[in-house]
Specification:
Elements: E1 2-9, E2 14-22, E3 26-28, E4 32-35, H1 41-49, E5 62-71, E6 76-84, E7 87-90, E8 93-97, H2 106-124, H3 138-154, E9 162-168, H4 175-187, H5 197-205, E10 212-221, H6 223-229, H7 235-245, E11 247-250
Parallel strand pairs: 9-10, 10-11
Antiparallel strand pairs: 1-2, 1-5, 3-4, 4-8, 5-6, 7-8
Helix pairs in contact: 2-3, 3-4, 5-7
Domain Barstar (barnase inhibitor): 164-244
Protein name: Barstar
Family: Belongs to the barstar family.
Length: 251
C-alpha cells in the first residue's frame, strides 16, 4: 500500500503528488489510523523540506490518498481512500487523523477499503469461483459489488453480447444476492450489473453500459425459494423492475 501527499488543482481537477510513502503495518479506530514503522530519519527530513508537516489542517488545497494496487498476469485492480490533510508522526509511525464533518464515517470506509483489499487479493489469486459471493456476509457482499463496479469501469466492453441468463433462486435470498447473481451471469466472476436498483435498471436498458441485448431474457428458476427468503416488502418491487426492463420468466 502507499500513502500519497497531494496538492489539489480544483479548477483543472488535477492532483499533483508531492510525496509518496510505502506503508504496510497499520491499526485504526474512530479517530485515527496509525501506520507503523513507515518513517525513518531520511524520510522525515525529505518531508520537512517539502514543509508537509507545517501545512494547516484547514487547507483544502492538500489531501492524502491511501492506495492499494494489486495484479496478476491477466488483470490489475487499484483502489484508494481519501483523507484530509491532518497528520503527524511519532517515532517511526505516521498518524492520520480523521476529519469529522458530520457526513463521513471514516472508520467504516476503512473497514470497506481493507475488506475490498482482501477480496481483490483472493480474486486475483484464483481463490474466488462461481457463487463465491453467496457465503459472504452482507457487508462483504457490498464490498464485492464495489469491486465488481471498479472492474466494470476499467474493462473494455466485451464483444460477446448476452441475450439470456438463468438465475437459480436457491442462491437469491436477498437484494444483494440478486445483484451478485445477475452480474456473474453476465460477466463471470466479479461481473457487474448494478449494485442498487437504479444501477440495475440502467444496466438492463442501456446496452452501451453492459454487454447485453435489450430486452435481456431472464429465467428465474426456483423462484419460490427466493420468495420465501427475500424481504417480503421488496420482492414484488424487484419482480416489477425486472418485468418492466427485461423479459422475465419465473419458474
Amino acid at each position: 500500500m502507499k500513502i500519497e501527499f497531494v496538492k489539489h488543482n480544483h479548477e483543472n481537477e488535477i492532483d499533483t503528488v508531492l510525496y509518496s510513502l510505502n506503508v504496510n503495518q497499520y491499526q485504526y479506530d474512530q479517530e485515527k489510523i496509525i501506520f507503523h514503522n513507515c518513517l525513518n530519519p531520511k524520510i522525515i527530513i525529505e518531508m520537512e523540506a517539502l514543509k508537509l508537516f507545517t501545512r494547516t489542517k484547514k487547507d483544502y488545497l492538500f489531501g492524502l490518498y491511501l492506495s492499494c494496487h494489486q495484479e496478476n498476469i491477466h488483470e490489475k485492480i487499484s483502489d484508494q481512500i481519501y483523507f484530509s490533510f491532518d497528520f503527524a508522526y511519532q517515532n517511526n509511525d505516521l498518524i492520520i487523523f480523521y476529519s469529522f464533518d458530520g457526513e463521513a464515517d471514516t472508520e467504516l470506509e476503512l473497514n470497506e477499503f481493507f475488506k475490498r483489499k482482501e477480496l481483490i487479493y483472493k480474486y486475483l489469486n484464483g481463490e474466488c469461483g462461481q457463487k463465491y459471493w453467496f457465503a459472504l456476509s452482507d457487508f462483504e457482499k457490498k464490498c464485492w459489488l464495489d469491486i465488481a463496479h471498479l472492474r466494470a469501469q476499467l474493462a473494455q466492453m466485451d464483444d460477446h453480447i448476452v441475450k439470456e441468463i438463468i438465475l437459480d433462486g436457491t442462491y437469491i435470498e436477498s437484494e444483494l444476492d440478486l445483484y451478485c447473481h445477475i452480474g456473474e451471469e453476465i460477466g463471470g466472476v466479479l461481473g457487474y450489473m448494478g449494485c442498487n436498483s437504479a444501477a440495475l435498471r440502467d444496466c438492463l436498458t442501456d446496452d452501451e453500459i453492459r454487454p447485453t441485448q435489450y430486452p435481456l431474457r431472464i429465467i428465474w428458476k426456483n423462484f419460490e425459494y427466493s420468495k420465501q427468503k427475500f424481504n417480503q416488502d421488496h420482492i414484488q418491487y424487484f419482480i416489477d423492475l425486472l418485468s418492466q426492463n427485461a423479459d422475465l420468466k419465473i419458474y
